[in-house]
What does this fold into?
Amino acid sequence: MFNSQLDLSEYGLPPDAKLPERILALQRDLGGDMIATLDYPLPPNLERSEAKERMAKSRQNALVAAQCLLKTPDYTPMLYVAAHGQTGDDIKYYVARVFEEREQNGLAEIRLGIAIGSLVPLRWSQKYKQIVEIVRGAIPGIPASHRSRTPVHVFGISGSMIPLLVYLGVDTFDSSTYVQHARRLVYCDPQTTRTSPVLEMDGLDC
It folds into this structure.
């Protein structure tokens, strides 16, 4: 999250101005019917000037992705725009600008969803109030005429926070917790969510 430049050369994606298009093409090649825009997350305590720069770059990448989709009428995925903000007001402005720029650039036919990012570090540090503030700010940024057909996703947060996020208006979630546990050879009990080192366990009661 602290890298201002992305090096995806091992995937055959050089760090150049066409990176948003290349990321879009990669998702298309993978058969994605729901795809996300290339973004620059906001780590905690980021300088305000850099946060503004990252948000602007992320919004620009979203605009480029939508313009690319307009040129490929045979490919019509749901485009989730990665949205970020340090505060609720930040992300409300961010989301509102996304929809304004879509209209201004003749991209109204591109289906958009909103995917709220940069929340995982806040959960790690138990800054739940800030998470709520950001989520509550993002949804009002969607124009009222579009809200019923604009799904809202949250990157990287699920588990015990799902009921709260649903109450706030979030539609879908994702989590890499189980993958991370598997890589560390840790078993997560699906009922209690307690974890145990697999190599120290005598067995599983499934």
